[in-house]
């Protein structure tokens, strides 16, 4: 029997599909793990940047506090040098005073007669004199009004000291400098607020040394796979920020309203705003893989909300840290792993094919052995059956001559009796064919022929065996039944010819095949013999075939199929009853 090539091909295709599915799943799982690991590293980097920026901001706020305290001291110095009436103080006098105090300028602010406004009356900086109203300044005007009314400021913004208030460093509305720090003093002894201001380049310089941009530069230098870090304003990014108008008509944006607070934002994508908003709405990091200039990149957006104020002058704003990293390294790692994986897969596939081939060879060989065993036993039994038929045909002429002689001599009754016996013998042999199971039928037919030759009264009855599966189970059934019958034949051959009787019954029910073989035993049959009869090598027979093996084979095959065997001795008869589940 050859291996079924179709089965081999189908099995091979199934194995290949399983391998492809497994390897594809492994590839994407590995990719997701690497991407997740890179995302977590970017989140960790973003957290480190956030912590560094918070510490930097805390330091810069502390510096602003120190500058504010210096501005108050300078304002007290100016109050001791200036006339309490602003009309009696000249702009030139304020210029000289600024030089003496080592600041960039002074302004005197007083109430106007229109709408309770507060405006600049005198200043060492000509552009400051162009400010006609401070009402549009928002909380700055509220601070001026509280200072002139209560000599103390109570709004939460800014730095508050006795008779003094200082706002954050900011772009001056007058446009006199890029960024300045202003302080305001009023104790009620004058009719004006003393405004002293300095250029905030020192604060900016401090932020350049330890601030967010420096943190970004150091982070980029330490992580070669990070391409860009951006600090995106949590409110104004993606929308047009508020523009303020200076006295000269030029527009400017507040330091704290700039869409890009720190870092750079050159690697852009149309979906950045979507992921930026998603990180804010969910307050969770968002990581996405995109393509930029033909290469893969990973962008991570991490929202940093406003915390409790670190100092009184802090005007903290929420922002989103965007980190763009090179995804090419992950892709290269995956490609390397994929090549290695493919080599392993090819090797495993070849080994699997060889293994499957040998498995099929083994199965086929086992099937061939089983079929050969069945065929040999079947052919042996069929040969025995044909031998019986040939014997009948050989004796046919003798039978005809005998019947002719009886008829010629007028012995009609003897002739009828002889013909009846002959017909019964022929019918008994023919009845075997109707058992319903070819292998068992051949076995019974062979044993029946043997019983006829050895003068054994052999009776049988089989029901419900139609449709039982052929194969190894049929071989084992023949082994079991054949050995039981052989054992019974050997036992009854100890009796005279007229007392030799063997009864075989077989039926199937509840998915089980049950066979019983009964025969008489000699009076000296002992129970201990019964207890030992299934042992290998045990036999009550003399020289001959099957000594000590038949019943042990029966027991081994029944146990193999998880069947049962019962033996009972009663009234001089022994009965073997076996039940085997059919699978």
TrEMBL record:
Entry annotated with the keyword Mitochondrion: no
Domain Histidine kinase: 477-583
Domain of life: Bacteria
Keywords carried by this UniProt record: ATP-binding, Kinase, Membrane, Nucleotide-binding, Phosphoprotein, Transferase, Transmembrane, Transmembrane helix, Two-component regulatory system
InterPro entries for the chain: HATPase_C_sf, HATPase_dom, His_kinase_dom, NatK-like_C, Sig_transdc_His_kin_SpoOB, SPOB_a
PROSITE patterns in the record: HIS_KIN (PS50109)
Translocase in keyword set: no
Chain segments annotated as transmembrane: 7-29, 338-360
Name recorded for this polypeptide: GHKL domain-containing protein
């Amino acid at each position: 029997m050859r291996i079924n090539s179709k089965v081999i091909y189908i099995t091979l295709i199934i194995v290949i599909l399983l391998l492809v599915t497994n390897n594809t799943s492994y590839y994407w799982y590995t990719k997701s793990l690497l991407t997740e690991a890179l995302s977590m590293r970017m989140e960790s980097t973003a957290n480190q940047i956030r912590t560094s920026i918070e510490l930097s901001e805390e330091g810069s706020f502390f510096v602003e506090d120190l500058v504010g305290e210096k501005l108050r001291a300078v304002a007290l110095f100016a109050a001791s040098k200036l006339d309490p009436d602003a009309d009696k103080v000249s702009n030139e006098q304020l210029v000289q005073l600024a030089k003496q105090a080592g600041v960039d300028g002074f302004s005197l602010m007083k109430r106007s007669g229109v709408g309770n406004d507060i405006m600049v009356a005198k200043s060492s900086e000509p552009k400051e004199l162009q400010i006609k109203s401070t009402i549009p300044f928002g909380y700055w005007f509220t601070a001026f009004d509280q200072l002139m009314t209560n000599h103390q400021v109570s709004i939460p913004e800014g730095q508050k000291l006795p008779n003094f208030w200082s706002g954050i460093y900011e772009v001056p509305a007058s446009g006199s400098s890029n960024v300045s720090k202003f302080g305001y003093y009023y104790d009620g002894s004058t009719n004006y607020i003393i405004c002293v201001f300095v250029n905030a380049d020192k604060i900016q310089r401090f932020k350049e040394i330890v601030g967010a941009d420096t943190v970004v530069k150091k982070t980029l230098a330490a992580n070669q796979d990070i391409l860009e870090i951006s600090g995106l304003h949590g409110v104004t990014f993606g929308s047009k920020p508020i523009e303020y108008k200076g006295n000269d008509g030029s527009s400017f944006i507040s330091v704290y309203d700039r869409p890009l607070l720190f870092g750079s934002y050159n690697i852009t994508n149309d979906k950045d705003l979507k992921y930026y908003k998603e990180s804010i709405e969910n307050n969770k990091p968002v990581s996405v893989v995109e393509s930029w200039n033909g290469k893969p990149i990973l962008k991570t957006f991490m929202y940093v909300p406003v915390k409790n104020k670190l100092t009184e002058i802090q005007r903290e704003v929420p922002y989103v840290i965007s980190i763009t990293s090179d995804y090419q390294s992950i892709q290269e790692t995956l490609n390397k792993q994929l090549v290695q994986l493919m080599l392993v897969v090819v090797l495993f596939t070849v080994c699997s094919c060889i293994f499957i081939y040998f498995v099929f060879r083994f199965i086929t060989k086992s099937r061939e052995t089983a079929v050969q065993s069945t065929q040999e036993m079947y052919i042996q039994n069929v040969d025995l059956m044909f031998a019986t038929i040939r014997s009948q045909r050989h004796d046919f002429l003798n039978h005809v001559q005998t019947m002719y002689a009886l008829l010629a001599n007028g012995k009609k009754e003897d002739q009828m009796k002889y013909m009846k016996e002959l017909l019964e013998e022929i019918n008994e042999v023919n009845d075997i064919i109707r058992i319903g199971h070819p292998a068992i039928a051949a076995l019974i037919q062979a044993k029946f022929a043997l019983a006829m030759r050895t003068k054994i009264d052999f009776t049988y009855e089989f029901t419900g065996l139609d449709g039982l599966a052929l194969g190894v189970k049929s071989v084992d059934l023949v082994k079991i039944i054949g050995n039981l019958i052989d054992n019974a034949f050997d036992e009854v051959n100890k009796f005279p010819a007229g007392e030799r009787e063997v009864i075989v019954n077989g039926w199937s029910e509840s998915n089980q095949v049950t066979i019983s073989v009964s025969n008489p035993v000699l009076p000296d049959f002992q129970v201990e013999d019964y207890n030992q009869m299934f042992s290998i090598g045990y036999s009550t027979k003399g020289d001959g075939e099957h000594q000590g093996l038949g019943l042990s084979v029966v027991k081994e095959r029944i146990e193999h199929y998880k069947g049962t065997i019962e033996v009972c001795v009663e009234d001089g008869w022994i009965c073997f009853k076996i039940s085997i589940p059919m699978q």
